[in-house]
């Protein structure tokens, strides 16, 4: 019996309940049709379906016009209440109040973003969203699927291609600068190509595969450099360069951070190295979520001021 009832409920067309409400409110097929935007024939057909569904005439003709049956009068109150609740639920827009929200966001990112954006982001969270936590994690092979399922909210970094179903927003346009220690014995007020290629270099290579934009540009000119130190992380690089004669070529914003941390000079590279862009990327399932919109806005604001 329970199975038959569930199948019966599954067959209910919500529009029939709207029709039912209009019929009892108007007491006329013609006026009810105009009220819900149907033709008179379509309303008559809907009334027939309602009578079959409820197993009741619903409206009967009398000398005083169409009047509802006792069964229809019994149902109209609960049906109108249900319709009002459905309408309110659908119309209600979710809100996000950062000042009171208690939740966490997971962001897949790289060292660059952690150095340039995260310090100011955390300050912003402490001020505006004191109960919101941030989880920074590295890229991995499951990043895209994790974003599809909501395990990761955002990916931020150098992401030239993204799968279908993802959105992107440009955050940063970046270029390269060099850093050397302040009392470097060879580097003067400018860094020329001869000095640049003769000095030993440090290279930050997170994946350990070596090479990079500098080597490509030098090779195009028939030149090369010696990479005396290759390391995977940014922070240790600044410390080492400040104590050696190594040259380090890094994104300009990283160079400024390094110069604040250590006794380093920022120098313009002697060759044009071009630049790169960083984007934030999210899955379409998060596109309209108010909390997610807020987080993306905070990252965009901080990136503009970086």
Automatic annotation (TrEMBL):
<dbReference type="InterPro" id="IPR000847">
    <property type="entry name" value="LysR_HTH_N"/>
</dbReference>
<comment type="similarity">
    <text>Belongs to the LysR transcriptional regulatory family.</text>
</comment>
<dbReference type="InterPro" id="IPR036388">
    <property type="entry name" value="WH-like_DNA-bd_sf"/>
</dbReference>
<protein>
    <recommendedName>
        <fullName>HTH lysR-type domain-containing protein</fullName>
    </recommendedName>
</protein>
<dbReference type="Pfam" id="PF03466">
    <property type="entry name" value="LysR_substrate"/>
</dbReference>
<dbReference type="GO" id="GO:0003677">
    <property type="term" value="F:DNA binding"/>
</dbReference>
<keyword id="KW-0804">Transcription</keyword>
<dbReference type="InterPro" id="IPR005119">
    <property type="entry name" value="LysR_subst-bd"/>
</dbReference>
<dbReference type="Pfam" id="PF00126">
    <property type="entry name" value="HTH_1"/>
</dbReference>
<feature type="domain" description="HTH lysR-type">
    <location>
        <begin position="12"/>
        <end position="69"/>
    </location>
</feature>
<keyword id="KW-0805">Transcription regulation</keyword>
<dbReference type="GO" id="GO:0003700">
    <property type="term" value="F:DNA-binding transcription factor activity"/>
</dbReference>
<keyword id="KW-0238">DNA-binding</keyword>
<dbReference type="InterPro" id="IPR037402">
    <property type="entry name" value="YidZ_PBP2"/>
</dbReference>
<dbReference type="InterPro" id="IPR050389">
    <property type="entry name" value="LysR-type_TF"/>
</dbReference>
<dbReference type="InterPro" id="IPR036390">
    <property type="entry name" value="WH_DNA-bd_sf"/>
</dbReference>
